[in-house]
Amino acid sequence: MRTYDGSAGDVDYGTISPLYASYRRPDERIAHVIAEALGGARTVLNVGAGTGSYESAAHTITAVEPSLAMRAQRPAELATAIDAVAEGLPFAEGQFDAAMTLFSVHQWSDVEAGLREMRRVTRGPVAILTCDPARVRDFWLYEYAPDVLDTEARRYPPLDQLTAALGGSTTIQSVPIPLDCTDGFNEAYYGRPEMLLDPAARQACSAWSFVDDRARQDFDTSLRRALGSGAWDEAFGHLRGRPSYNGSLVLLRANP
Ligand SMILES: C[S@@+](CC[C@H](N)C(=O)[O-])C[C@H]1O[C@@H](n2cnc3c(N)ncnc32)[C@H](O)[C@@H]1O
Predict the structure, then answer these.
(1) How far is CA 255 from each of CA 2, 123, 126, rounded to the nearest angstrom?
(2) Which of 27, 51, 89, 237 has the fewest CB atoms found within 10 Å of its own CB?
């Protein structure tokens, strides 16, 4: 199923993407972790490439992105993205040195088929940046927006499903999230709760599009109240000064 915009996953980026690139700017420290996983690759496939976050000039990138709205927001200096989906990649066997898919697998209609395709077209490592569904609810946001994180826990594929689909040998590492992380996914605001009161910041995280206006309003009211009364700071204020946070964000690196 593709939407009018071409979106192929469980989210219509034609609706939610207008501010994506301003709130989801690649973070250089996370970029470093991804670059290490890609090793010395020259040609790199980026699946679910979106607006081009984490595509490095050090690689020759081929980007695949089904959403027209996302493709249209890619900076001019990046490769034009190909309109295709993970589940059917239009490339030859072993065409790329390495491949990556970042913040994307939880949206695919058939994650196993998509990863088999990535493995098929890649000679070397396949890197997946995703969240561990077993850890999603550990974040303080669960106290204020349980529906949002329940949705996330349901959407993210279990890590053993990802490793089984890729075959070969896989390493999994927890990715530290810096306090001033520029890529605005929910946990990026672990020490800056006020940021999540900005509706546009929330819109840049697709999970919020799965709950209705009423749930968003309830969240806004309860977090504002907790910040105003000091209850949030009493429980979680230590996070305001913590330089990095290990939450549910993980990087998988699968070798054939
Ligand atoms: C949260 S965005 C991440 C974009 C980019 N990788 C980043 O890190 O900013 C998820 C992307 O996955 C894409 N996507 C969803 N389903 C897909 C599929 N079946 N095949 C390829 N890409 C897909 C969406 O269109 C969207 O651009």
Answers:
(1) 31, 9, 7
(2) 237
CA distance 190 to 246: 10
CATH number given to 13-255: 3.40.50.150
Tokens for 75, please give them. Answer: 């900076």
Most informative mutation of 10, 107, 128, 151 for ligand 1 (most atoms within 8 A of CB): 107
52 Cβ inside 6 Å of ligand 1: no
- pTM, two decimals, is 0.95
Tell me the C-alpha to C-alpha distance, in Å, between residue 118 and each of 47, 136, 193.
8, 25, 36
Do residues 136 and 248 lie in contact, with contact meaning Cβ atoms separated by under 8 Å? yes
- Per-residue model confidence as pLDDT tens digits over 178-202: 999 999 999 999 999 999 999 999 9
For the chain, the domains span 13-255
Residue in this structure with the two tokens 């469980």, named with its chain if needed: 10
Cα 50 to middle of ligand 1, angstroms:
5
27 pocket-lining for ligand 1 (C-beta < 6 Å): no
CA–centroid distance for 20 within its chain: 12
Between the CA of 49 and the centroid of ligand 1 the distance, in Å, is 6
